[in-house]
Amino acid sequence: MLHNIWNFLLYRPFVNILAFLVSVIPGSDVGIAIVVLTLLVKIVLYPFSQRSIESQAKMGLLAPELNKIKQSGASKEEQAKQTFELYKKHKTNPFSGCLLVLIQIPIIFALYYVFYKGINFDGDLLYSFVHAPTQMNMLFLGILNIGGKSLFLAILAGLSQYFQAHFMPQPAVSSGPTNSFQDSFSKSMSMQMKYIFPFIVAFVAYSVSGAIALYWITSNIFAIGQQLYANKKKGMRMP
């Protein structure tokens, strides 16, 4: 049941959009089609990701106020109440990033599965008004073969993931003598996203195909640009 819903809502639509793009793009360049498809997905998710970025930035700006509440000596219940009122006053939701992650997970898996199966436009998957491309050019821009493994693209995927994490707002940490478990956990996750996750992305990208790597590179470059734009718009400091 869930498999059928997943196919109907995500996997099959992505296959059809990709087939259409390959058909209309000059030279039937599958790489360009992947870039365009990735950008379309990022544009659709833009309102959610922008809200998450703004919320993370506000959390950093609210760090001094949050530290005052933690060091006030008030009871846990009173601290929780004051923290909630602070979030409400500044219209900040510390869990907004979780919503973006939950939305992206099935989309990422669907795109991953489209590329993992080798971009095979099976007639049974295509809608009646979408025709299978007569040809597919797996040489991206006539240079990079994305049909197989690509060490170069895998390395670029890892590097783009590093810079994407680098420009993200850093988690706010208490300024007291001891950090809470939440502070330590946030800092640990931030370090792993910046220094470990890029290697995981590069390994997965190389293990599957250049198409996966190209998807990650495009997605990360879009995210970096979005973060830089948000930093400039809000006058935030770079990490």
In short:
By secondary structure, this protein is mainly α. The chain contains nine helices and two strands.
Tell me what you see in this structure:
The protein is mainly α and 239 residues long. It has one domain (2-234). The protein is 69% helix and 2% strand. The chain has a two-stranded antiparallel sheet with strand order 1-2. Helix 1 crosses helix 5 and helix 8 (197-208) packs antiparallel against helix 9 (210-234).
Please tally the β strands and state the result: 2
Our Rg estimate from Cα atoms comes to 21 Å
Structural classification = mainly alpha
What number of domains? 1
Q: Give the terminus-to-terminus CA distance.
A: 45 Å
Reading the helices and strands in chain order gives HHHHHEEHHHH
Let me know the average pLDDT: 77
Helix content: 55-70%
**Which stretches are low in confidence, meaning pLDDT under 50 for 5 or more residues running?**
174-178
Specify the overall morphology.
elongated
Described by strand count, sense and barrel closure, the largest sheet is: 2 strands, antiparallel
Regarding quaternary structure, what we see is: single chain
Placed side by side, the strands forming the largest sheet appear as 1-2
> What proportion strand?
under 5%
Can you count the helices? 9
List keywords for this structure.
2% strand; 9 helices; mainly alpha
What is the fold's blueprint, element by element?
Layout: H1 2-24, H2 30-61, H3 63-70, H4 76-89, H5 96-116, E1 139-140, E2 144-145, H6 151-166, H7 181-195, H8 197-208, H9 210-234
Helix pairs in contact: 1-2, 1-5, 2-5, 2-9, 3-4, 6-7, 6-8, 6-9, 8-9
